[in-house]
């Protein structure tokens, strides 16, 4: 009797051999899983992402918003998570006009031997220009540092596997409210965006933390949904800095050991804690 596939496990227990400096000894390790997650909008295949198979409804909404496929959560009418033998299919239903825009983009994509950025056909589509971020958020430097310290203890999957990125959303008081993890840094941020919106929170009312470098895609995604401050544990790229400046976003990097660099939008970060 055949059974329908179940969602893949998040991690597996594997027998390994560990070198302790003198001997090779048997050990047991928890290893994170990554699976292909296919996004299909109104019956049209759009992208396949290698991802951790968790928080998939958040992923569906966050990806749709951060990639500009929809501008509002109300334009995403349904998400069906379909487990497959070797991955997951996300069937998404969006407004007809959004589907038409995707179909027009899809017709232009032909004959590529590889896909660095799935779902785009030319440089203009890669370099989207988000609207300037709005809001009056001001955050003490100390709150940013405290949020990163708190994030360390909230990375459940990474504590078990040591192989995933995290993205966290922090409110104006410096409290980390939401955390999402994934093998892909972009996926973690997309899941976080979806979680923020699904929780009824306003992205512009807080700031985002990422445990990775800040690439231009990360800045572009955050700006697209209106997050005013993005802080990374590692460095940004020069293109990320230019996109942040164009978007009016505050971008911080190297946030570790009590210090951080501010690359753009320093006016949102203050010395005051009261």
Summarize the structure in short.
The protein has 8 helices and 14 strands.
Entry keywords:
274 residues, alpha/beta, Ubiquitin-like (UB roll), Cytidine Deaminase, domain 2, 2 domains, four-stranded mixed β-sheet, 8 helices, 14 strands, 28% helix, 33% strand
Characterize the structure shown.
The chain folds into 2 domains: 35-126, Ubiquitin-like (UB roll) (Roll), CATH 3.10.20; 139-270, Cytidine Deaminase, domain 2. The chain is globular. The longest helix is centred in the C-terminal third of the chain and has 14 residues, at 185-198. A hairpin with a 4-residue loop joins strand 1 (11-19) and strand 2 (24-32). It is of the alpha/beta class. The protein contains 8 helices and 14 strands. The strands form 4 sheets. It has a 6-stranded mixed β-sheet with strand order 9-8-10-11-12-13. It has helices spanning 56-66, 96-107, 123-126, 141-152, 156-161, 185-198, 216-224, 238-247; strands at residues 11-19, 24-32, 35-41, 44-51, 76-84, 87-94, 139-140, 165-171, 176-182, 206-210, 229-232, 250-256, 259-264, 269-270.
